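This section describes the prediction task in plain terms. A model, or a person checking by hand, is given the sequence of a single protein chain and must write out its three-dimensional structure as a string of C-alpha cells. No templates, partner chains or ligands are provided. The sample shown here is typical of the held-out split.
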Amino acid sequence: MLLNKRFFLFLFLFFVFYNIAFTQGEFVYDAKGKRNPFIPLVTPEGRLLKLDKPQDTTRQGLVIEGIIYDKLGRSFAIVNTAVVGIGDMAGDFQVLKILENKVIFIRNGEPLEVGLTKEGVE
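The expected answer:
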C-alpha cells in the first residue's frame, strides 16, 4: 500500500514538472536591430552569408563602425562592415588616413573626413 502511494505521488509530480518544463512555448530572441548571434554566418556548404543590416549612413554612404588605431604600425577601420587599411578602397573612395576617431578618404582629389559612428548603450 505504501509503495502504491509513493508510485502515484512520483507519477503525479512527474506529470506536473513535465507540463511546466515543456509547455512554456518557444523562446524568441530579440536582437534589438543588431545581428542575431544565433544565426550562423556560414552555410553548411561553406559559403559566407551576407546579412542585410540597416545602416545609418553618413556622408556619401560611408559608415565607420570601428577603428583599430596603432601609432607605430598599421591601422585598420571597419567601413560599411568591411575591414580596410590605408590605400584600400571603400566603394568609390580610397582610404587616405586612419586616425583615432575618424577616417580620411579621397575621391577625385577631394578629401572626405568621416567620424566614428557612436551608438548608445541600450
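For orientation: The longest helix spans residues 2-22.
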